Each structure stands twice: as C-alpha cells, then as structure tokens.
Amino acid sequence: MSKLTRILLLVGALVVVGGGIFLLTWDIPAPSEEVTKTLSNDRFPS
C-alpha cells in the first residue's frame, strides 16, 4: 500500500473511533417541553 493510503485509513479510523467515543460520552438532554396532540374519534373504527 502506498503511504497516502495508509494515512487516509488511519485518519478514517480515528474519526470513526472518536465519533463513537463522543456518542458514548455525550449526555443527550431530554425534551424540555411536553407535546400533546388531540386525535379525533373519527380516525378509529368502533
């Protein structure tokens, strides 16, 4: 393999590993506002 290919593969692997670590450690906040929706009875068969 050429030197450039090895460098690109190494950089790609570092990006993937870094992204995985970021997602594992990120404290994603819960939704802050309540969502309510009224459904009409016409949509449900009786």
Mean pLDDT: 91
Using the CA coordinates, give the radius of gyration: 24 Å
Indicate the percent of residues in helices.
40-55%
Give the termini separation. Answer: 68 Å
User: Biggest sheet, in brief?
Assistant: none
Q: Are there runs of 5+ residues with pLDDT below 50, and where?
A: none
The backbone outline, from C-alpha atoms, is elongated
**Number of helical stretches of at least 4 residues:** 1
As a percent range, the share of strand residues is under 5%
The overall strand count is 0
Which structural class is indicated by helix and strand composition? mainly alpha
Write the H/E string, N to C: H
Keywords:
46 residues; mainly alpha
How is this structure best summarized?
By secondary structure, the chain is an all-alpha fold. It is built from 1 helix and no strands. The model has no long low-confidence stretch (mean pLDDT 91).
